[in-house]
Design brief:
The complex is a heterodimer of chains A (270) and B (318).
Chain A (H helix, E strand, L loop, with lengths): L10 H24 L2 H20 L9 H31 L2 H6 L5 H29 L9 H22 L9 H4 L1 H12 L10 H6 L2 H14 L8 H5 L2 H18 L10
Helix pairs in contact in A: 1-5, 2-3, 3-5, 3-6, 3-8, 3-10, 5-6, 6-10, 6-12, 8-10, 10-12
Chain B lengths: L10 E10 L5 E11 L4 E6 L5 H8 L7 E6 L8 H4 L3 E4 L11 H10 L7 H7 L15 H13 L5 E5 L7 H16 L3 E6 L2 H7 L2 E6 L2 E6 L1 H6 L3 E6 L16 E5 L2 E6 L2 H14 L5 E6 L3 H9 L10 E2 L1
Parallel strand pairs in B: 3-7, 3-8, 5-6, 6-7
Antiparallel strand pairs in B: 1-2, 1-4, 8-9, 10-12, 10-13, 11-12, 11-14
The chains are: A mainly alpha (270), B alpha/beta (318).
Chain lengths: 270, 318
Amino acid sequence: MTTTAQTVPAGRQHLRGSVRRIGSLARAEAVLLRRNPMALLTALGTPIVGVVLINAFPPTGAVPMPGATIAVTVTAYTLIFPLYYNLVTTLVARREELVLKRLRSSECSDAEILIGAAAPAMTIAWGQTIIGVIAATAVFGMALPVNPALVIVAVLLGTVVFVLLAAASTAMTRTVEMAQLSTLPVVVVSMALGGLFPPDMLPGPLPRIAQLLPLTQVVDLMWLGLTGTTRGGPDEWESFSGIVPALLVLGVWVAVGLLARRFMRWEPRK
Amino acid sequence: MLDPMDATGVIDVAGLHRHYSGGGGFEAVRGVSFSVRRGELFALLGTNGAGKTSLLEVVEGLAPASSGTVRVLGRDPHSERRAVRPRVGIVLQDSGFPSELTVMEMTRMWAGTLSAPRPVGEALDLVNLGHRAKVGVRQLSGGERRRLDLALAVLGRPEVLFLDEPTSGLDPAARQGVWRLLRDLLDGGATMLLSTHHMDEAESLADRLAIMHQGLVVRTGTPAEVVGGQPARISFGWPAGVAPPLPVLPGGVTVQRTRGGVVLRTGDLQLTVAALLEWANHHDLRLHQFTAQAASLQETFLAVAEPNGTPHDEEWMG
């Protein structure tokens, strides 16, 4: 393969083309999202519901930091519903309409198709996270984030993991309606084990399992970046030593996601 | 810019197999070879299930070959898709439009994925869809969807076009319009690989063609060459009442008796017709619904696709 005289396009030129193609797909996908009331409601409404719920039923025993709790709750909801759940339904809808097959006949690479489809959901998720952090600071008296870079890394890694998990989940989802069922394992397990409450509050072996899940680690890292402590306790130095294992867990999930994405099908089952 | 591979062909397919795994496995393409030269339209004919679409998907680079080689513009369309795709346009068998977009939005989106697109309005005008730009894709008729497919395929000014049954669902007038557009593009130097089961489409457009049956190419050449080996056909209603038996006719004739009529196949139409009519005149017979037809692609195709598809009450004579 390497012996053929291949005119390798300049890296920058290719990147520019890539951004243009993703942008074009993302624009169309944003129009489609605007015309889909259910998806729009899920995208914009669920994090608000999450904030209302967490205020009504605050996790007992948690560190009393209402601002940080609200910021991480918004992020947890936004990664799960506007990003993961909506992306599963979007990809399945496009697959069943044979749009994915058409796009695979275009100049777009598989990664560009996936990112283009996910772009509006990603934009919403990041926008809500930013609004959540600002609201937590301005309204709920949270101090300015201790380590903003850590917050950004946590949200970016969480985004990558849940986009890949969404792509993989489409393999188990035959119709858009079935997405409500097929997404339940990821949604319920992520939220119940560490996403909404600190893992320490869970009984039996569950805290250990929770520590291996991506959403738990995103929320823990984010909490650490925002407040300088973990959700469990106030010990700053010990908690910062938890960054490496957390990043490691997320790194493994990115790898798992990349492998699982291979199960994604680009056309309907015949 | 000349490719070093131009000497052989714009599309080269050699010993191509495509095997579907699962369900016991199924080999849809079983060793196909052909070559399409620059500026040529090559048609793939075949019944449903003959393997046309399975073959096209490999040549388009949507699926890898199970074995054999495919080159488009000198490159592997699957593993070198990034290099090949900017130079080709594809009409798939199914459109694949998101139903909530308008024609214009769909066309803009597609243009955004292309390296060097035509103006969006120009592409829509080429297929006479300019007046439908603001209509939702879901409101289009089947024929209009097909024309939009074609508009998107030519949007990037491709050197090579792959067309999987591009006129399915079109009314006769719209088909003529598509044929005109394809001829214009051919005049402009484009190369095309087109699948169809309309014989008139192949006869009207193809420089060369291949008839596929059960995953194999069973006839290939120019339309004249493909038809050439086939016998011409004469048919007429058998005269009522008692008629004398047919004479031995010249031209290597086979005779087939159908319900109320006779079908003759001959290698020399003129000679056979002359002898037949002389016989009829001699016996003062009137041959109702007499037709004599040179070999056609339709006949050739049916002979290949349905080798056992002759009527039941046949009877060999002569």
